[in-house]
Structures are given as structure tokens and as C-alpha cells.
Write a structure and sequence with these properties.
A hairpin with a 5-residue loop joins β1 and β2. α1 crosses α3 and α2 packs across α3. The C terminus is likely disordered. It contains five helices and two strands; from the N terminus they run αααββαα. It folds into two domains: 66 residues, Orthogonal Bundle (Arc Repressor Mutant, subunit A); 42 residues, no CATH class. It is mostly helical. It has a two-stranded antiparallel sheet. 56% of the residues lie in helices and 5% in strands.
Length: 126
Amino acid sequence: MIVIDAGSPVPPFEQLRAQLARQIQDRTLAVGFRLPTIRRLAADLGLAINTVGRAYRELEEAGLIETRGRAGSFVSAAGQAARERARQAAADYAAVVASVGIDESEALCIVQAALRSGDAAAPASL
């Protein structure tokens, strides 16, 4: 179930993207599951078509879903590759943190701040 909080400071497309990503990653939505069409989900959630389209595009760019033309959008098996990519990024970050002498609690605070602010959406070099 997807819930969009109109009063949230988080944009609706990001709320949708995050909730779908979470459901894919925790396997609530199984590999091969056909997602609703953009138009249908937009109507169901009371969102603009472009809002849902942006969430789907970002999920596709992350490898969590794949679009098969007129057949629709499906949960991708490549989601496992996305997890491996995230694990590798975390290992790289841990190596950088250790090399510059930042302690674990500060390193975690940096990651949490980046996730909350949306800075995590655009990778930057450390």
C-alpha cells in the first residue's frame, strides 16, 4: 500500500519512489511483479501523471524496475545488482572514512544527513 502525505516536506514523487523501492527491496513486490500503469497509479493516488512517471524513471535508473514498452513496468531481477552496487559504495565510503580518520558515529551521521537531505540522489566524489 502506497500512502502519499500531502503535508510532508518530501516531494510526492520521492515519497512514491521510496515506498516502491522499499517494497521491492524487502520483497513485498516480487521480481516480475507488474506495476500499475503510470496513469492508473496517478489516478489511484491523486497525483499528476508526471509525478508518477518521474518516480518510475528513477526506479528504472536504479535498476529496480524495467519497462517493457506497452507490456508495462515490472519489478526487475536487477534489483540484486542495485543492492550489490550499494554495498560496494558503502565499502568504498568506509575505506575513505577510515583513511581520513573520521570515527564511525560521525561517518554514520554524515550518511544519515545525506539520506535525509536528498544529497544521496546525486553521487559526489569524496
